[in-house]
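pls design
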């Protein structure tokens, strides 16, 4: 075990970066993605079954709250074991404040599966945040994130290995901007990478990236999530990559044109790979990550979904068929995650 010097900080402790292996950089193992105002324990709606899962996925079932709650360690353990069987080894849980993060649950899953589980910290979008955050200073918010990485997160001694996902809405709220500034300050002290959840407007990723640069953040350690539902043109993608940050296509496996949260043309996996190809051809291989961002039940194998193993089992073969080299695949799944998760 690496206890000093360059290390990847998993929920079970530090490991040598070379031991990390193929890694999913944006997932949720235990998480509650329901908006806090809609969290009613007595009204969870139906459990998923063969005769409702398609309709729930397509968004025509109202009140399917249970789908948006990942609260069972045994289920998550089984799903992570499937990821390992498919060829994965590391998995980053970015359930930040507001998404019911569960560090001790992640410890149990890591112990049971042997996966390298890395955990995030900080706070999700405005509407999910603890109302008490409204009166906290930037320095106080930053100190919480530094402590999360240095000592432990959410009152435990489980250390975060990355900052995020830090939530932003479009338009960007003053509270979210203060939390983002705090994340930049915490990055400066800890060296940890920052993961950004941008709002659903094609100009928001650039707005956030410009803000982080002006505030002195390390652009090569800033990851912009959810590119697949946010930016749909090559010019914006190239400009964002040219700014030096890392672009994350993290909705792999979502191949329906239905997207509950916005009326947009969602890409399928092959279309995602086409956008990634364009950036690689422009010299941006070191700035690309892929993941699934699983945060509801119907995307798990248990309930008819693709599961955390999809990228390793299905997307990697698709990449090969589309002409991606082994060097490129290794950079996206091994080298880039290792570099971003290494803390000196
Ligand atoms: Zn997420």
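designed seq:
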């Amino acid at each position: 075990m690496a206890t000093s010097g360059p290390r990847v900080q998993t929920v079970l402790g530090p490991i040598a970066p070379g031991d990390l292996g193929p890694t999913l950089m944006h997932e949720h193992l235990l998480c509650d993605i329901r908006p806090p105002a809609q969290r009613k324990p007595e009204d969870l709606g139906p459990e998923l079954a063969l005769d409702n899962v398609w309709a729930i996925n397509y968004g025509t079932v109202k009140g399917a709250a249970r789908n948006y709650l990942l609260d069972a360690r045994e289920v998550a353990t089984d799903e992570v074991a499937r990821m390992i069987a498919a060829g994965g080894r590391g998995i980053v849980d970015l359930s930040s404040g507001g998404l019911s993060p569960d560090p001790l649950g992640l410890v149990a899953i890591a112990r049971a599966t042997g996966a390298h589980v890395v955990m995030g910290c900080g706070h999700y979008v405005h509407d999910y945040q603890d109302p008490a955050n409204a009166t906290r200073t930037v320095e106080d918010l930053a100190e919480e994130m530094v402590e999360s990485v240095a000592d432990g997160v959410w009152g435990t001694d489980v250390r975060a290995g990355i900052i995020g996902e830090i939530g932003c809405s479009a338009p960007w709220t003053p509270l979210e901007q203060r939390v983002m500034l705090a994340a930049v300050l915490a990055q400066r002290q800890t060296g940890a990478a920052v993961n950004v959840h941008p709002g659903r407007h094609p100009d928001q990723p650039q707005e956030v990236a410009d803000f982080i640069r002006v505030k002195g953040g390390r652009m090569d350690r800033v990851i912009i999530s959810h590119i697949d539902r946010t930016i749909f043109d090559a010019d914006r993608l190239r400009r964002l990559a040219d700014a030096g940050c890392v672009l994350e296509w993290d909705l792999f496996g979502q191949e329906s044109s239905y997207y509950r949260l916005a009326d947009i043309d969602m890409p399928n996996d092959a279309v995602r790979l086409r956008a990634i190809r364009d950036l690689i051809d422009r010299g941006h291989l070191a700035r690309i990550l892929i993941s699934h961002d699983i945060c509801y039940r119907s995307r798990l194998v248990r309930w008819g979904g693709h599961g955390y193993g999809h990228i390793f089992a299905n997307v990697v073969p698709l990449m090969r068929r589309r002409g991606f080299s082994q060097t490129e695949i290794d950079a996206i799944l091994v080298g880039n995650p290792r570099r971003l998760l290494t803390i000196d």
